[in-house]
Design goal:
The chain is an alpha+beta fold. It contains three helices and six strands, in the order ββααββαββ. It has a single domain, classed as Heat Shock Protein 90 (2-Layer Sandwich), CATH 3.30.565.10.
């Protein structure tokens, strides 16, 4: 188990082994990052989104294999906060799955519906092993 972090003024980058323990550590670092930028009021939404995408990276992308790496970056550009997670898995096929509000009550598949409620944009790379969330920090959380 390892966690590597680099912090710049408006960016925090982490690489870690695929484990739930490391997700907890990453969320602690997110708290510190948001506090340094005076964006604590977005903490709930940001950590909810981070936990969702990182849990999926551990469970689905990494198949709970701690030998696999997850990359996570949180960046502030102007008034936009970006979260990006990438795993070493084969990827996710993005479709309408998770966008329907009825899926929130299902045991699986509700994560995307939640992300779409809290973030202004949710997108995947072409292979589906990287997700990017975008949040406007000028409004109320």
């Amino acid at each position: 188990m390892y966690l590597l972090c680099t912090k710049q003024t408006n960016e925090y980058f982490m690489v870690f082994s695929a484990s739930f323990e490391n997700i907890n550590l990453a969320c602690s670092r997110i708290d510190d990052f948001l506090q340094s930028l005076r964006l604590e009021k977005y903490g709930f939404a940001v950590k909810l989104g981070a936990r969702e995408i990182l849990n999926n990276a551990v469970i689905h992308g990494s198949k709970n294999n701690q030998a696999r790496k997850i990359r996570f970056k949180i960046t502030l550009h102007g008034n936009r906060l970006f979260l990006k997670a990438r795993d070493e898995g084969t990827g996710y096929v993005s479709s309408r799955a998770g966008r329907e509000s009825g899926r929130v009550l299902q045991e699986s598949g509700r994560g995307l519906a939640i992300l779409h409620k809290y973030f202004d944009s949710v997108s995947f790379n072409e292979s589906g092993n990287e997700i990017k969330l975008e949040l406007n920090t000028t409004g109320s959380p």
